[in-house]
Design a protein that fits this description.
The complex is a heterodimer. Chain A is mostly helical. Chain A has 12 helices and 2 strands; from the N terminus they run αααββααααααααα. Chain A is globular, with a radius of gyration of 24 Å. The chains are: A mainly alpha, B alpha/beta.
Chain lengths: ~290, ~250
């Protein structure tokens, strides 16, 4: 009754081939990551130490640590997201929950999509014109952070809208039916059930803000800046700062005779910082998902 | 016919260019159970959405004509949320909000500004009892409403619709997701509730309308075919031949 006809055999063979092909593609994703991280760590090994994190660069940046760049990157990332996350989330809530499908809404949509596709160097030129010159913030942490904020804003809007749209409409209708206003509905049902997705979208932008060099190199990041050691807030907001991505670029292209392991160690620090943030994001998401309610 | 509770006058509704309700008029008396029957796409749900103005959330909908509740035109109302609180609405598919059972029922009163825990406790218990759900959930009011079975969620939806103490209760095919025994229990509840409120019962089960309603409206693609007392609609000789055929399931 269940004889293995040629048709059945072919079906099973196709199934096996497909499964292994997909599995191989998925597994191959691990290879570049292992290679990159392994290569970086091996080359950076002579310089890697806790001191590298908290020391100033020495000998005209040819040796020493990355302390000012690390602190500068933290400044830039925190400030830029402090600007872009609230604006982006509120804008997305408006677009997804309040706005009707009219020409203004569609225009905003087109703007968001196109802004998300603008190359970072173009954002840099915009930041240079708007913040450094027009707003007279000069070459400063403010200018660089605002430029990064503009760069991350459209992606935050898009990912937040996605998260909001994943909450079923029937929940909203049930709230409206009992006389809840739109805001009461958003507060009680929509936001609590989309917050994990919203936060994930925001935190993914951390790595982008930390990794981009182009937007900050004309607006606030400098080759070298001496800062007070031991002071956790060594930069003023109107000062220029160092940043890991910029530091890496400088070491790799502008400084002759750098100790070989230093740029690699800088890259490891940058990668490590991003991985720490992403790991935190995953942990947060798992926690919030566990509280998800349907 | 004195002081009707709801008056619908020449109501027209279109979604974009497509008109789905073509000018219907009827009145619903206080404390009656008013049945609405008719096949899919005949405009039953849209009609209910016009009465509590959730049609506002369909931007492509445009409405003409009047819907009056207690003699007041709902389209000129300022406090639309107050209107919706006076009308309980139960949707066809059960929607337990992703909140605890307690919060599901307490949600509407809280939105209306009630915060006193003791009052809320009493209200939640009364509504859950009225919806024939209290005995099954009284020991786990803190668990999620979404984790209940379909039938329980539907009764939770009914409890939520009762929680804002409406004067009108609209049931939109409430029984399609629940078993016959539970359905009968809820029908008994409705007969009780009728003393306190007017009930609009939209149903695909013509026998349900026959059991519960005092009058039934037969809606057919946006037009009223017939509206009359149940003993006429469900008799052998309703005014319209179509009504007889629909009610008795001999449609060709």
């Amino acid at each position: 009754m269940f004889a293995e006809t040629p048709l059945v055999r072919r079906k099973l063979r196709q199934q096996a081939v497909a499964k292994w092909a997909f599995c191989a593609m998925a597994a191959s994703m691990i290879i570049p990551l292992v290679l990159i991280v392994g290569y970086l760590v091996v080359r950076a090994w002579p310089s890697l130490s806790l001191g590298f994190l908290v020391d100033m660069p020495t000998n005209h940046m040819r040796d020493g640590g990355v302390w000012p760049a690390l602190i500068g990157t933290i400044y830039l990332v925190v400030l830029s997201l402090a600007v872009s996350a609230p604006i982006g989330i509120l804008a997305a809530v408006y677009l997804n929950e309040y706005a009707r499908d009219n020409w203004l809404n569609r225009l905003v949509n087109v703007a968001v999509i196109n802004l998300a596709g603008v190359p970072s160097i173009v954002h840099a030129l915009f930041g240079l014109g708007a913040f450094v010159y027009a707003a007279r913030f000069g070459l400063s942490i403010i200018s660089a952070s605002l430029t990064l904020a503009i760069m991350t804003l459209p992606v935050i809007i898009a990912s937040t809208r996605e998260a909001l749209a994943s909450v079923p409409r029937s929940f909203r209708e049930a709230c409206w039916n009992v006389g809840a206003s739109r805001w009461q509905t958003i507060r009680a049902v929509v936001l609590p059930n989309s917050i994990s997705g919203i936060l994930t979208g925001v935190i993914l932008q951390v790595s982008r803000a930390a990794g981009e060099t182009a937007p900050i190199m004309f607006t606030g990041a400098v080759f070298f800046k001496a800062i007070q050691k031991g002071n956790p807030f060594p930069y003023g907001l109107h000062e220029a700062c160092m940043a890991l991505s910029m530091h890496l670029y400088t070491l790799a292209t502008q400084v002759p005779d750098v100790k070989e392991s230093v740029p690699f160690a800088t890259a490891v620090v940058l990668l490590g910082a991003v991985l720490v943030v992403n790991a935190a994001a995953i942990a947060l998401r798992v926690y919030l998902r566990s509280r998800k309610k349907w | 016919m004195s002081d009707p509770h709801i008056v619908v006058q020449d109501l027209r509704l279109s979604y974009g260019p497509k008109e789905v309700i073509h000018g219907i008029s009827f009145q619903i008396q206080r404390h009656e159970i008013f049945g609405i029957i008719g096949p899919a796409q005949s405009g039953k749900t849209s009609l209910l959405r016009c009465i509590n103005r959730t049609i506002d959330f369909s931007p492509e909908a445009s409405v003409a004509g009047a819907v009056m509740v207690n003699g007041q035109d709902v389209w000129s109302l300022k406090d639309v949320h107050g209107l919706r609180r006076r009308i309980g609405m139960v949707a066809p598919l059960p929607v337990g909000l992703p909140l605890s059972i307690y919060d599901n029922v307490a949600f509407a009163p809280r939105c209306a500004g009630l915060t006193q825990r003791s009052e809320l406790d009493g209200l939640v218990e009364r509504c859950l009892r009225q919806a024939a759900l209290w005995d099954e959930v009284k020991d786990r009011l803190d668990s999620l409403g979404t984790k209940l079975s379909g039938g329980q969620q539907q009764r939770l939806t009914i409890a939520r619709a009762l929680s804002h103490q409406p004067e009108i209760l609209c049931l939109d095919e409430f029984s399609i997701a629940i078993d016959p025994v539970t359905t009968m229990r809820i029908e008994d509840v409705l007969k009780e509730l009728r003393r306190q409120m007017t009930i609009i019962l939209v149903t695909n089960l013509t026998q349900q309308a026959r059991r519960l309603a005092s009058r039934t409206l037969f809606l057919w693609s946006g037009r009223i075919i017939e509206l009359d007392r149940n003993d006429v609609i469900f008799s052998d000789h309703p005014a319209n031949r179509k009504t007889y055929e629909y009610v008795n399931g001999i449609f060709g």
